[in-house]
From TrEMBL:
Name of the featured protein: dTDP-4-dehydrorhamnose reductase
One of the record's GO molecular function terms: dTDP-4-dehydrorhamnose reductase activity
UniProt function note: Catalyzes the reduction of dTDP-6-deoxy-L-lyxo-4-hexulose to yield dTDP-L-rhamnose.
InterPro entries in the record: dTDP_dehydrorham_reduct, NAD(P)-bd_dom_sf, RmlD-like-bd
Pathway participation: Carbohydrate biosynthesis; dTDP-L-rhamnose biosynthesis
Keywords: NADP, Oxidoreductase
Similarity comment: Belongs to the dTDP-4-dehydrorhamnose reductase family.
Domain RmlD-like substrate binding: 10-289
Oxidoreductase found in the keyword field: yes
EC number: 1.1.1.133
EC category: oxidoreductase
A Pfam family it matches: RmlD_sub_bind
Domain of life: Bacteria
Amino acid sequence: MSPYPRPRWLVTGASGMLGRELTSLLVRRGAAVTALGRGALDLTNDAAVRSALARHRPAVVVNCAAWTAVDAAESEPSRAMAVNGDGPRHLAQACRALGAVLLQLSTDYVFAGSAGRPYREDDPTGPRTVYGCTKRAGERAVLDILPEAGYVVRTAWLYGAGGPNFVATMIRLEAEQDTVPVVDDQHGQPTWTADLADRLAALGSAALAGTAPAGIYHATNTGGTTWYTLARETFRLLGADPGRVRPTTSLALARPATRPGYSVLDQPRWREAGLEPLRNWHTALAEAFPTLCEAVGRPVPRLR
């Protein structure tokens, strides 16, 4: 009898917002899961990665670990590349040796952010930040090393109960400030970690079953909005006046790293693989909202 009657999953970056969500979901569904946070596995250490995978022998690896400090990456490119570029390469090489599937999380920042329509999975990339360049390097490593078992899953604008995020910040600021300035010239898709975790689990299972082809998948809650409109919707769900959110520009809130002006992602590959894409962001946010309020210590409002 096989020592692994159930396909074993290994989640890296398991102490982060998405990693915790995915690990919890897999455990609830009865999967055999190894969850490794940064302290348990240093992805920049090739020998450590090979040793960890040889020891745990997963069938599916989901890499939720990343350098996500977008601005800091501009001044520390080598450190960002070690995590976002070298880390996925080490994982891909170890997965190839083991015969495992790898799901690599990536980002909308691999695109230039100047499109006039939603980006498709096969559109040319053109990152304008160090962070985006390092994430693209990780994508290429996975696709090159694992052409039949490597899955790049691009997502964006994540929020959830397990870590700091924009929606949680808006919930907090509503109680602290009379007005809140928010940029209205960056277009994207707010994505609930619970919805993304569900699709990662579905994609990994389909990959093992041989029904989902390897390659690039976009995974965001559908529809598009701006940070300003998302903040207004957050205030509305709190029962607060959305007019307290004031529009501003990216230029007025200049940061070291340029933010994409437009990074809405189209996602036809889900249906091509026989899987449902993520639902609309409005619906997801409304369902997530009670959990988000509880996470920051706010009572859940009752809307009229």
